[in-house]
TrEMBL record:
Keywords: Membrane, Transmembrane, Transmembrane helix. SUPFAM superfamilies: cAMP-binding domain-like, Voltage-gated potassium channels. One of its GO terms (biological process) is regulation of membrane depolarization. This is Cyclic nucleotide-binding domain-containing protein. Residues 1-18 have a biased composition (Polar residues). It comes from Anopheles melas. GO terms for cellular component: HCN channel complex. One of its GO terms (molecular function) is voltage-gated potassium channel activity. Residues 1-48 are annotated as: Disordered. Residues 508-589 form the Cyclic nucleotide-binding domain. The chain crosses the membrane at residues 124-143, 155-181, 282-307, 369-394.
Amino acid sequence: MSKIPTQQQYKQRQSSLPNPGITHAPSEHPPEEMVAGNGGEKGNRNFPSHHCSVSHDVDLVKLLISANTVPRRLARWWRRLCLIDHHSPIARLAFRSDTAIKREMSRQLTYYPGTIHPLSYFRFVWNCLMIVTFASVFLLIPYDITFLYRIEDYYPFTAFHVVLLGADFICLVDVVINLYTGTYDRQTQRVDLNMSGVRKRYLRFWFWIDVITSAPDPLLTRLIPTTTFDSSLVYCLHRLNFHAGCLWDLWSLLSVMKIFRFRTFLRYIRALCEWFGLRRKVIKFIAILATVLTVFHWSTCLMFLVLRLAQGTDPAQIDQRSWTMKISFWNQTSLVRYMECSYRTLYTVAHITHDFSESMTYDDMLMSLAYTISGYILKIYLLAELLIFIRILFSSASKYHEYRYELSNYMRHEQLPAALQQQILSFYDFRHPKIYSRWSLIRSVLGEQLYGEMRMQLVGPLLRGCPLFRAVFTDQQLMALALGMQYQLFMRNDIIARWNGDERAWHMVFIVSGTVALYTSGWQKVLHLEDGEHFGEFQLLFDANTVKFPNMVAVENSQLYILSRDWLERFLQPHPALRRHLIDLATEHLHQMEQMQRGSVLEALEHVETVRMQPTAGSSTKPHQR
């Protein structure tokens, strides 16, 4: 172990490296980590997935930032929050290894000390706050512009405008934070901490939109005389009579440009969902739901805005054919008017009902036509997404039925006997119970290491249940045996193994479920083996002169894992010492069994977990082979 460098030595070592303003997340898969046997140690701060008994945990923040006073400690705490968060799923996906995350952390501390990392914990918490802020702004801004136009809607200062003013204040703070935050491109997996370039790109476009749409217009409205409220910009557009008093709510109308930040809003939602480990289709469903609700709300406000532009707000001057004159609309509160418009938008877009006998103005006709066409397009899109989601959700079951139908057609085309067709379909149903999965594809995707760990969860208890294997092989060698075992399914009365004089064709069996019967060469039943038991480890190592080779038959539908003698010999060929040790231990076990009396053997066999004696049965029907 090398000594921990001092702060000066560490900075000198880092200064010899190039100064990358932009880092790329590693594109290659990280090497396999060597984990020590003691997995219960406390996790490393900079290497959270690494556990080691050697103490080499270096806190880079404490190493590079000294803090002797309370203000300095608060400053160091703030710097720690602004560093890349190694617990973030997005950071783990982008950098893929603890070493890359630590290198990114040291790069930020050395070259960009005043920068907020886009994958930091502070930025994640702030993005969660901006999700609530954006959702409030997207709901409040169009409602404020379209439905609040009377003097009593602004005076006195209502709770609605207090919430809107708080959202504007948070958006202004977000503008300042964006000037000190790096950027992360998800597609190219690039992290840019060079603030000069980041600020230039931000000041070109998004800065001005954020500033204009975040202006505290509720406070500006308080400065406007009440006599000017009657001459709003919408009213001037309706009357086509423009003057200086029409511009008092221009700033409020410009705030609708906040909708350009809707894509950022969806990106924040996606990051939050990924933090909680939600599936991709669930994240897409949430994004679609947020989009549909926002579009519906803005369409409702647009309907009333078009009505104000075309007809005005004076009931005496509104066309009598307008739908607003058929109901008590203009003497209601803004909330009731919003509910009326939302219902009309809903039944126009979704076609809940239509009353074609009602009279409509030309602007009503155009709005209904536009909303109807938009409704059809929306239905087609949502139906396509729903079909894709259902297809992915039930893909295994659909493949099961598809291949079963294809198998049935093939057997009918070949004119197989009905009994054989039923037996083949029963085998298929038992092998793939209402689902279909390809283990070869799963193995190629996971890789040998992860696939071996998964196989050890399935067959590891069976291998460790064999005393001979448990005493000789290590965990890594047992994993190799698990990868070499083959899954087999046998139906009732199928022959699993038949002794024909070829010792290399012998297979050791591990029973997952079902019952297997052992027969002598004369087909006399001797033993029954059930779930979790095994047989044949000695037959893998010795010839027919040393041990007996019985016949094995499935008594019922049985799921087995099979280890062939030929595969075991190829596995042991590079390890002659291991092979010798295995044979010596097996020989010792055989000698111990030979020295036991018959009564002791029967008593011992009752307690052995792999072999259980059954009463000797008479002559049974000879099983058949599929």
